[in-house]
Design a protein that fits this description.
Blueprint (H helix, E strand, L loop, with lengths): L1 E9 L15 E5 L2 H6 L5 H10 L4 E11 L8 H21 L6 E6 L11 H13 L5 E5 L7 H6 L2 E4 L8 H17 L4 E8 L15 H13 L3 E7 L12 E8 L2 H17 L9 E2 H13 L7 E4 L15 H7 L7 E6 L1 H10 L4 E6 L11 E11 L2 E3 L6 E3 L3 E6 L2 E6 L9 H4 L10 E4 L15 E6 L32 E2 L2
Helix pairs in contact: 2-6, 3-4, 7-8
Bound molecules: zinc ion (ZN).
Length: 504
């Protein structure tokens, strides 16, 4: 029999979100329970389990799964102490209970975590596991392509398997790829050789959309490498530009069977492909003032139709932002816009005020600026409570249960604000739809995600504007004040030079 342990640690944070996240933000499961639930799921673990199930000799040994319910801020020190103890204990158990009998470990990791007292939590865990379980068994690590591939992660993984799509739709396939590579390592007499090339760049924008953008060229090359007989895994980890840690940058990683020179060539080629296009991998942003004027003009012009999509990626909860930005709502309320706006907001206090008032009643509330008051000024307004919910809903993207905590729908003048207690992912429409709000029945909608699948907002939009609002995940990277990441780095510094650094 072949015993493969699986381990999961998933969180993405923004260092510029002024709050901290805690262990309570994680769904933590141990033992068999979490994989029973995950067998059907449309993500990495589901894909890996399906693949392992095709091999009768494989016994899956689940260790621990810690998935943050949402992205968020840096993990508080005490919470990391607590969480890391639980994570390392599960590895200790693996070493003792299964002493010497585990054949391999699959680590499913996002890669963009940071704690106040540990800038590289994933690397810490991989190093710890290596120390406990030894050098002889293979470790395969899958990562979100916004993960930061640190030196420890690279050194202690035999193969890194990154996502190949943005917006991410290949989580399941990534799990399948990771499991297939694992089975090759276990059943064939092969030696993987991994090469990492560091690229001093932080990139954003439409060209990152793999279906249509220039970044797709890099990933098509990665797929071609994987399709080769000698190809085990290839990809590019662009890093979450908001996770400001000492190793934040773009990394290319290529793993081939025993072919260092070729792997180096491929990895360098991919790195250069990104580098030559870097200037186009930025977002052209429109000021809030100009975005409001364009919204008013679009709505007033009888020749135009369709909803105006106001993209507020600066408050993207799925990238780690606080979600309490009222910047666009405030600008619309202060303007002459006669249409109806739909906007999402995180505001626990406003939710409680609305619940106390009850459905159908009017209430005076302060909206926004509860988590990040340095960026957002609370907005005093009169609202009517239209709906109260528990905030649980199934995502249209992954059919996973997402939990916003108690949630209310408020009418503010002729606009609608869907207010949750906790931040939830907003990279699809499910938060709005599950609360009875069809974005396209409004004249304008605030979308707090840099990119959703095109059919969700971009294609049906009457006008689509990337707004330069303040926020802890602003694509205006220079506005954030990075202090940790290596410098110089594009686009924070001028005249950055790319000299491929191989495996440093
Ligand atoms: Zn990502």
């Amino acid at each position: 029999m072949t015993k493969i342990a699986i381990f999961q640690l998933m969180q993405e944070i923004s260092s510029f979100n002024p709050s901290t996240s805690t262990i309570d933000d994680f769904a933590i499961q141990c033992g068999a329970a979490w994989i029973e639930h995950d067998t059907e799921a449309n993500h990495e673990i589901g894909g890996a389990l399906a693949q392992f199930a095709e091999h009768n000799e494989v016994i899956v040994v689940p260790t621990i799964s810690a998935r943050s319910n949402s992205s968020g801020a840096v993990l508080a020190a005490a919470s990391w102490d607590d969480l890391s103890t639980r994570l390392t204990s599960s590895i200790d158990d693996l070493a003792t209970e299964h002493g010497g009998t585990i054949d391999a470990v699959y680590f499913c990791m996002h890669g963009a975590m940071a704690a106040e007292n540990e800038m590289d939590p994933e690397g810490f865990i991989l190093a710890y596991a290596r120390e406990k379980l030894g050098n002889k068994i293979p470790f395969v690590t899958s990562m979100d392509l916004h993960g930061i591939l640190t030196t420890r992660m690279f050194e202690h993984s035999d193969v890194i398997v990154p996502y190949h799509t943005y917006p991410h739709v290949d989580q399941y396939e990534t799990g399948v790829r990771a499991a297939k590579v694992m089975m090759r390592l276990l059943t064939e007499d092969i030696s993987p050789v991994s090469v990492r090339v560091q690229v001093p760049a932080l990139v954003r924008g439409d060209e990152l959309v793999t279906e249509t953008g220039l970044f797709g060229e890099c990933l098509r090359l990665a797929k071609q490498i994987e399709e080769r007989e000698l190809g085990l895994a290839a990809g590019m980890l662009i890093g979450n530009p908001f996770t400001d840690v000492p190793e934040l940058q773009t990394n290319v990683v290529v793993t081939l069977v025993g072919e260092e020179e070729e792997a180096t060539q491929y990895a360098t080629e991919m790195g250069e492909l990104l580098w030559v296009h870097r200037d186009r991998m930025r977002v052209a942003l429109t000021s809030i003032e100009d975005a409001v004027i364009a919204t008013i003009d679009h709505h007033a012009d009888p020749e135009t139709n369709g909803t105006v999509v106001l993209v507020d990626a600066a408050d993207a909860t799925s990238s780690g932002a606080s979600g309490d930005s009222n910047a666009i709502l405030a600008a619309i309320l202060a303007s002459d816009f006669l249409g109806r706006l739909l906007a999402p907001l995180v505001d626990a206090a406003a939710v409680q005020t609305a619940i106390d008032a009850g459905v159908g009643n009017s209430v005076t509330v302060r909206l926004g600026g509860t988590v990040d008051p340095a960026r957002f000024t609370p907005l005093d307004c009169q609202a009517k409570v239209r709906l109260i919910s528990d905030g649980d809903f199934f995502s249209e993207s992954f059919k996973l249960l997402w939990r916003g905590g108690p949630t209310v729908v408020l009418d503010v003048e002729n606009h609608t604000v869907v207010v949750s207690t906790n931040p939830v992912n907003l990279f699809d429409r499910s938060f709005f739809l599950s609360h009875g709000c069809d974005p396209f029945s409004y004249d304008a909608v605030v979308v707090k995600s840099p990119h959703c699948e095109p059919h969700m907002y971009k294609e049906p939009a009457g006008l689509y504007i990337d707004v330069d609002a303040p926020g802890s995940t602003s694509a205006n990277l220079k506005s954030l004040g990075h202090t940790q990441c290596p410098r110089p780095i594009f686009p924070l510094d001028d005249d950055v030079v790319f000299q491929p650094r191989i495996n440093e």
